[in-house]
């Protein structure tokens, strides 16, 4: 019923791509975590979900629905975005996204993302069953949260392969969130097993600085765009380019105008962000030249303080608004 209410054939064909002044295409997708957000996406006629936070769809429920009921939920999103592939992030329960009450002393450092899947394989098995059922009629991409090292990817592939055989489906595009420094440093060693990366700047910043992402006061010490993160992003994008991996970013930074020219300069050409940011970021991109963003990045990498970096970017934005 929801599908009927949000999708009509009368909507214009959306173009979730923005062109820089010098003609480079930047793909823009949405971060979605509810049917309400799906509706707001449809309202602006945008047809791209590059991060579906699947765990948040079920967070309010005391028990996780079985595969059949999960499938019904995913189908709603798949139908609304058809024929575009949705990027389904596999469950990232734990840390700030607890299904029940956490018994852990440090949930952010505990059982979350793919680790919870490895501890309780039924979690991902059921979810994959639901998603592969969806994949019979709609294109899907899979995105794994909190991957740190190759062993975790191998565990996942061993779980996925027999299911693909059972469903007689080819392997969907598979990506990993790059959201820990370990993942960044191990990226070269995982590149042959994946099709794309999506940088999770929220967690990457949290784990880079050992600073709780939910503590806004603490976060004032480490502004969203800071030199430590910039240096890590430079390393990630360099490795990804060496291995010809498409590079996306889906943390809050993807919707941050201030970070935008730097992200483009780094060669990130797929940004996923909260729905309200999409029109603004789309508009801003058309005012930039990629070549100038690259020069800005070179200057940014020479800054010594976050304030210097901030001033540099502010000046750039003033001349490109
Ligand atoms: C991130 O960590 O940047 C991210 C996009 O994932 P989430 O915010 O859902 O943890
Ligand atoms: Mg994350």
From TrEMBL:
The keyword Kinase applies. The keyword Electron transport does not apply. Keywords: Kinase, Magnesium, Metal-binding, Pyruvate, Transferase. One of its GO terms (biological process) is phosphoenolpyruvate-dependent sugar phosphotransferase system. Residues 17-287 form the PEP-utilising enzyme C-terminal domain. Its cofactor is Mg(2+). GO terms for molecular function: kinase activity; metal ion binding. Belongs to the PEP-utilizing enzyme family. This is Phosphoenolpyruvate--protein phosphotransferase. It comes from Ferrimonas aestuarii. The lineage of its organism: Bacteria, Pseudomonadati, Pseudomonadota, Gammaproteobacteria, Alteromonadales. The chain holds residues 238 to 558 of 566 of the full protein.
